[in-house]
Amino acid sequence: MTMYDFDTLIERRGTACSKWDGLKQRFGVDDVLPMWVADMDFASPPEVVEALRRRVDHGVYGYTVMTDSYREALKNWLAQRHQWTADPDWICHAPGVVPALAMLIEAYTQPGDRVLIQPPVYFPFERVIRQNGREVVYNPLVERDGRYEMDFDDLDRKLDGTVRLMILCSPHNPVGRVWTEEELRRLGQLCLERGVFVIADEIHGDLVYPGHRHRPFASLDARFAENSATCVAPSKTFNLAGLNTAMVLIPDTHRRRLYQQVMGRWSVGSLNPFGAVAAEAAYRHGGAWLDALLKYLEGNLAEMRQRLAELTGIRMVEPEGTYLVWLDCRSLGLPDQALDDFFLRKAKVAFNEGRIFGPGGEGFMRANIGMPRALLKEALERIASAVRDLQASR
Ligand SMILES: Cc1ncc(COP(=O)(O)O)c(C=O)c1O
Hints:
Strand content: 5-15%
CATH topology of the largest domain: Aspartate Aminotransferase, domain 2
Distance between the termini: 46 Å
CATH superfamily of the largest domain: Type I PLP-dependent aspartate aminotransferase-like (Major domain)
Bound molecules: pyridoxal-5'-phosphate
Oligomer: single chain
Largest sheet: 7 strands, mixed
Number of domains: 2
Order of helices and strands: HHEHHEHEHEEEHEHEHEEHHHEEHEEEH
CATH class of the largest domain: Alpha Beta
Helix content: 40-55%
Strand order of the largest sheet: 2-10-9-8-7-3-4
């Protein structure tokens, strides 16, 4: 018996919620089950809600700084959950991981510089690189026996001295890989040799399934730490994405100063009081809730695995972490727009279209399973019925 309730459906419509209230704007329809943007339909840990309630009751919501206690909460979390001994001085604020990526790119590269990413990957990576006037270099992941891997031969060729920076997605959204220590060491070594600075986006690092272990890139080698900036946040782990609170750990003093200068230029260094309170409470008291959440998500995954195995046409790429599931829909034989329409208008579920994640995403869909089991079952039932209708019509 878990002391946390993930089964009760909480009505989110009417809360200006992107995932539900934003359906019409994003997809043109709103009679669909939303399984797209990466937040969950669960309440945050009760300890977080309670801490926020106390803060609300205070009544004064002025400018807010990062306290020693906040730094210590994150430091302890990283040490206990990931055996990473981080220095609290490394911790910088960010109003989100994507804003952090944009500022890190601005801090460490010049317009026209080349930045490497590993598609199919979280689509804002490419957008922030391009919108900041930098050039994107692809090192596409390769799929072997249903599992994605890094292509080190291609990486070796692409890191030819013209690439200054890479963004590592670890664990990887959308393919669900939790990179092994060996893979990360190989990558880190190559980046050191080629003078490539690594931004490690580890926002999904706490969401890892049994049999896998998230290894913070910077924890593997002091030289990797000095050559990297690591983005973390309580937003995915504890479902706090709307509070716009993230952290960047930058061990190298000079690099840290450069990042802080960009923060200063954009005047975004102030924390919001609710984000600060929620993040600290989550890192101090959220461990048991997270363990229960992971068990629940495993159950959701099992449900999806079983239902999809009964169908032909949709193959689930087994995730090692994250609540995002990468679905290979190529066997349905539908071109891009028809595939979108099939899920939206026939199955009536809203996924993220695979192709927005860049090369290698065509014919795939990304499904978010962070929802009550009953709702997931309903979605899977709709999908099964739509697939049967499609196949019967041929
Ligand atoms: C890899 C990755 N980075 C960053 C984000 C978003 O971070 P934020 O909301 O803090 O900008 C997401 C959200 O899905 C993500 O998957």
